[in-house]
């Protein structure tokens, strides 16, 4: 409680004070003001549109990651057999490399002089010095890199859920005449819904406020809500507007965590 109070609650109160001008970076006589809150919530600034753009990108990343990670978790838990822990270790190995190095490696792969564009130049599919414009510094790049980063993470809760399935129910489905797909759709998938929901939330919530990956590979087209907050604090020195955006993001994320925790708890009860 002391740790949370010092490093979370107090900073949150300070940010809230800046958001209503109770604290100010520069001397001011205007006093407490909710002007920036009003402009933001009414959509009079570009930041609300940027927030919804971040929501759409986070949804895209979450759906793609779950779709890709589920087969991986399924294979590890129910198909790989004795090799599953060795394969699981191979999935985790990339985490031993710095996150920044892995993201920067994508700049080498997708850049104008990167591996993909160089191959296109060599094969004559693109003219030299005419790279594919959306491969780097775009929404596509941000989504691609975030998917790459999150898939191994998300495969883990799905793997744990599937590994804990009651295999006797799978055998009962086979005994009752269901084929492999029938058992999957009627037994395996419904019982793995809590793991899928947890994986989705696990990706969606942190991706909303993502700013490191868009800063490195997103450019202006791939800018997200977290980039706006960082820019307002560091470059613009507009701490009041930055605090409004930061506190709004904290409220949204907190609400999503409360909602998802109740949803997952209900799902767990239903699965039992």
Question: What does this entry look like structurally?
Answer:
- This protein has 272 residues and is mostly helical.
- It has one domain (45-271): MetI-like fold, CATH 1.10.3720.
- Helices cover 74% and strands 0% of the residues.
- It contains 13 helices and no strands.
- It has helices at residues 2-19, 35-41, 47-79, 84-92, 99-110, 115-123, 139-163, 167-175, 180-191, 193-208, 212-218, 225-234, 239-271.
- Helix 1 crosses helix 13 (239-271) and helix 7 packs across helix 11 (212-218).
- The chain starts with a helix and ends with a helix.
- The relative contact order is 0.14.
- Mean pLDDT is 86; it is low at 266-272.
Instruction: Figure out the total of helices.
Output: 13
| Largest sheet descriptor | none
CATH architectural type: Orthogonal Bundle
Sum up the overall morphology in one term: globular
Quote the beta fraction. Answer: under 5%
Short synopsis of the structure:
By secondary structure, this protein is an all-alpha fold. 74% of the residues lie in helices and 0% in strands.
What labels describe this entry?
272 residues; MetI-like fold; 13 helices; globular; disordered C terminus
